[in-house]
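Discussion board: Methods & Data

I've been asked by a reviewer to show the raw model output for two of the constructs in my manuscript, not just the figures. I'm not sure how much to include, so I'm pasting the format here to get opinions. Each protein appears as its amino acid sequence followed by a line of discrete structure tokens. Is this the kind of thing reviewers expect to see in a supplement, or should I convert it first? Here is construct A:
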Amino acid sequence: MTVRRFTLPALIACLFALPGAAAASYPQTFGPVKGNPADALAKLPIDSFRYDYARHCTKKPTPGALAMVSWLKQHSSGVFWGIMRCEKFGPHNYSLHSDGRAIDWHLDAHSAAGRREAKRLISLFLAPDKLGNEHALARRMGIQELIWNCTAWWSGPGGMEKYSVCYDKKGHKLHVDDTTAHRNHIHIGLNWMGARKRSSFWTHR
């Protein structure tokens, strides 16, 4: 797979699948975004990059996931598609949905409006703040993974990359259904600081 820092997250986030629209293309470095909410928090220390694996299934969403849904409803034209789903991929390998730390936000890659809105959200999450802190809003919200239209970002430097589920070992595009490919929704996964509303965005709202 083509993930730089993490190998398991690609499997952990393998929740859905794809055919249809071509994979989105994003830069490795995102530019500043006007009105970035992270700018208002620039005086606070920036949250560290972190990735927390899911270890089991729980029965209810985390406070941070619910807060993220509320924020998305106010700041995006998409539609909430759910949080909870018990998914086990191996002995100690679970989806973030399993412990209530992942949001599915419906946007359609087959429509121009859906592609524009997804690109806007991803660009906002991964933009630097006014001090140049990389991926400022994602870090402050506690976002550790984004998956959309056969592309993915795992917490750490760099931009969106090819989502390995959509490609074979030689890098050739596979025919995957829209849900697995995340062409009909953005997957937003939170680390435990974000899920518990202890990252800076939630503690200083």
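Construct B, same format:
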Amino acid sequence: MKALITGASTGIGRDMARVLHKMGTELILVARNTALLEELKAELGGNPRIIAIDLSSPENCCALFDMTKDEDIDILINNAGFGTYGESSTVPLETELNMIDLNIKAVHILTKLFLEKFEKRDSGHIMNVASIAGFLSGPLMSTYYATKGYVVKFSTALFEELRRKGSRVHISVLCPGPVDTEFNNRAGVSFIINGHKSSFVAEYAIKKMFKNKLIIAPGFFIKLGIVLQRFVPTKLLLKISYMLQRCKK
């Protein structure tokens, strides 16, 4: 079994690599930071392949597929992504467009390219990493929440298309709440509640992926939040979301 993981150098992606490595899975680890990838490679042993590439470029996403399309990949994990904090009028447009390129376009391109390959073989797992943010609107992190909403809707729609065809290709979307990772430093936020350890989220996600779970939501309160938000009026939900966002700083 072989897995390709984007955003593998830190956080959940790194811990997913550790979990899969313990299961005997061959790994292709993808991220921008060569040094961190080399560190992880040395830690894991077993000679995983590392590819240092910036996936915020659509051309690089296609290049990554071209570099790996001849390998017998069974699992694609689209984990690369980032967020920023602040009112939309104060966040540089370039930063937001870069976020859209990485959080949406890279996920879309790689999912489409590998899905075609997996469907021809009629096997494989794709896990797209979103967030509980994908079910909400997020004042003060508006673009990030919107990108994760895209990932949730895109992934769930593909799941139904595959199900109706009787395909043995399975799509999962990981929707964690707060997680203690380097993501928080890049986004410039800290959470008012303790987040799950990324190692817990990674192990839980891999377990549920192999059980063909569609929405993977680690933790009881995250599951409860996803359900309850459906019954809260939009304007009230926006007020709650805004107050929670303000508490992150």
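Answer (T.O., handling editor elsewhere):
This is acceptable in a supplement if you add a one-line summary per construct. For B, something like: The chain has one domain: 2-246.
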